[in-house]
Every structure is written in structure tokens, then in C-alpha cells.
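Write out the 3D structure for:
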Amino acid sequence: MGKREKERIYSFIMFVIYVMIVVIVLLPLALLFVSSLRPGDDLMRYGLNFSIDWEHANFDNYVQLLFGANDYFRWYLNSLTVTVIQTGLALFLSACVGYGFAMYDFKGKDVIFLLVMLVMMIPTEVILLPLYQMTVKMKTIDTIWGIILPYLVVPMLVFFFRQYLMGIPKDFLDAARVDGATEYGIFARIMLPLMKPSFAAMGIYEGMASWNNFLWPMIVVRSANKVTLPVGLSSLLTPYGNNYDILIAGSCFAIVPILILFFCFQQYFIEGMTAGGVKG
């Protein structure tokens, strides 16, 4: 067997594997969309499945979602607000911390970075009680800042930004200092443009984490008009009745912002994820 034949067989096998992965990933989304075209009674009776009478399939669930009396778009707006603010602040602050670890030498740097790694290993559920107590003492309970503040600096983002910046030569900083640039000017005018791929990659990561965050907003938020989308959708499932019509159609709409975010930054996302693991 020649080298070209081996490469063709390898390429074919990899193609089959990738197709299987794509099918596995897209199958739940397809199931969700097909189920959203079915009446709520069918969903309660038969559950989620691909068995559907296409002659009776319709968009009534979406009409009810868009024009019916429900709080869906209030939840949607709340989640968008939290996601935009939290993602923007978390990216900037985590980039600042990662920049400090990557580009400066100071006493105890390695120990502090090790502590950041240890924090990354601790599940959020373990620190929920002290986080809640701190939120109450800061009087940010039942506010948008109560949701956002615990996630302003994310250890995962700090680690990634630090790894990404370790691959950038420090000659950029030295040249800028020779030209008289301040440390803030170097970061804002030179390093931030170079960090675009990493911002795109981590923006998608943090945006998804914020958009899908369920447990912490459920604990912090008490007012009905401040509920985020995941918490609001979960409230449709009650012991007294389940509103599957809004739940399934609303879940389909909930995917849209993440898809838009990814397709807008997919080029930078791939570049950033690749570059972030080059040097450590």
C-alpha cells in the first residue's frame, strides 16, 4: 500500500469521524426544532421525539411565544443585559490580570498564579454559600450586579490570556518604552490589538457561560421582572402544569445569540484557541 493510499484512507476515516461528531452535536438541536412544531399536548403525551405528523405541523408555538401574554422577552432582555455587561467586564479585567502575569516579573508571581489555578479547580457549588453571604452584605441581592460581580475576573480567562500573551515577544513592550509610551498606553494601543483572537475565543466562551448561567441567578434574583432566561424557562415546569409550548419554542430562540456570536467571531475563535496553547 502506497503512501498516497494510506493518506486517502486516513482522510476518509477522519471524514467519517467528523461527520459522526457533527450528527451527534446537531441531533439534539434538530430534535428541539421538530418538537417545537408540535402541539403542547403531543409533547406532554409522547415527549421529545422525531415522530411528527407533518400535515399538522405548524408555528403556533412561535406565534404564542411572540404575541402571547408571557414574560419571555423580559427574561430574554435581562439575559442579554447580564451577558453583555458580564462578558465585557470579565474579558477586560481578566485580560489585565493575565497581562500582568505574562509580561511583568514581581515577587510571588508564581505563587499567586498557582492560587488562581487552584481557584479554577474549585466547583462553583462549593462556594455558593459564602458568595451568597457576601452578596447580601454588599446589598447587591436581587440586582443585576449581584449576578455579575462574582464573575468579573474568571480564572479560566486569566489562564488563557496569560498563555496567549506568553507567546508574544516582549520586544514590543521594550520598543514602545523606548518610544516613550506609558505602561497603560502599551497595553491599550499595542497589546489589545494583538489580543483580538484571544478576546474572540474567550468572548464566545464567557458569553456562553453567562447566557446559560442558571444556578447563581436563581439564587440571587427574587423579583419576577429581573429573572434571566434560563431561570424563566425553568419556571414553566411546575407541579400544577407544564407550559411546553413556550418552553420548547423559547429554547429554540435561546440558541440564536450564541450562534450569532460564534459565526461572527469563528475565524478569530479558531485562531485564538490554536495560539493559546502554543507556549506555556
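Strands lie at 237-238, 241-242.
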